[in-house]
Amino acid sequence: MPLALLALAIGAFGIGTTEFVIMGVLPQVAGDFGVTIPTAGWLVSGYALGVVIGAPLLTVLGTKVSRKKMLMALMALFVVGNTLSALAPTFGLMLAGRVVASLAHGAFFGIGSVVAADLVAPQKKASAISLMFMGLTVANIVGVPGGTYIGQAAGWRVTFLIVAALGIIGFLGVAKLVPETGRPESVSVRREFAAFKNVQVWLAMAMTVLGYGGVFAAITYITPMMTEVAGFTEGAVTWLLVLFGIGMFLGNLLGGRFADRRLMPMLFTALAGLSAALLLFTATAHDKVLAAITLSLIGALGFATVPPLQKWVLDQASAAPTLASAANIGAFNLGNALAAWLGGIVIAAGLGYTSPNWVGAILSATALVLAFIAAALDRRASGRVVTGAAQPAPVQVPASH
């Protein structure tokens, strides 16, 4: 695989660390600024909202810039945002820093997916995408627990300064290793938006929201679930999240490898398995060993959906993939926010700390239904191509790329 993928993975590692490490140092941040934990929670939701807004906005603004230059600009923005967070004298400026950093998130993964796919042969595109996302999964194994430990030992500001330094390394890696090719296939914003006329693009983003949302319905409330239901200590939660991160890492790699061979069957299997694992979690959450195993399984199945979903979007929006790819990254964070909200509702209704698992299972099962619909539409479009070769197919067939 090209070394440029390493540069993209380093950038992804920094972004993944800053997205999730805030959860580990939230009490320290709240204490320093004199705000409540729920108020400090805006540092999480504000970041997610910034990703949803920043993904399409910055991608559109960058349509006339080479993808390499845009990736460098996004990493620079990431460094500025995390430096502002580290040095912020007030909570408002800390929140502003989080939002600035988050603006780079969606566009980096969206544009990076296109660049990664262009660096390799057609039959290896999903694997290349998964290697870039590997940086995000490794962040959950190393970056988040490491950043949490540093934040608790030396102060959360040091954590964010280190994350900013990771951004600088990512910037230099992109500058050195990513080739100065791959200008956007279209400098027309109108053409980029035209990709959204394809119902398959919308189906893919809906699958992303619901499928990945299923994971976060459970993970958002993993601390009370594991301490109050399974009986773990609070200190053990960090290591449980490492297990979850290891599952994400393995699922991401396997998802990319098998999606290159049979994309839709891989997606069907991952979504069906994820829904079943979340249902199972309502029972296994009462046993320490079984809870730990199920948690890592949810991480693996949840992230096994990422390479096929991102590849599906690139295939369906092949004429102008950059905006659609970035919008799909925003959909991941929209799924996070939706699932966290729904999980909070069922807990507040008195259904218990395991009730978000039921929410997640329903979300993932709905994504599976949409995947079957997408596959059926794709087969119908393929049939029209065969029977009426004179007419162009309205939907691109993944196997042709």
Automatic annotation (TrEMBL):
Presence of keyword Coiled coil: no
GO molecular function, one term: transmembrane transporter activity
InterPro entries: MFS, MFS_dom, MFS_Efflux_Transporters, MFS_trans_sf
Topology of the protein relative to the lipid bilayer: Multi-pass membrane protein
Pfam families: MFS_1 (PF07690)
SUPFAM superfamilies: MFS general substrate transporter (SSF103473)
Residue stretches spanning the membrane: 42-61, 73-96, 102-121, 128-150, 156-178, 199-224, 236-254, 266-283, 289-309, 330-352, 358-377
Domain Major facilitator superfamily (MFS) profile: 4-379
Localisation: Cell membrane
Keywords: Cell membrane, Membrane, Transmembrane, Transmembrane helix
A cellular component annotation (GO) from this entry: plasma membrane
Protein's UniProt name: MFS transporter
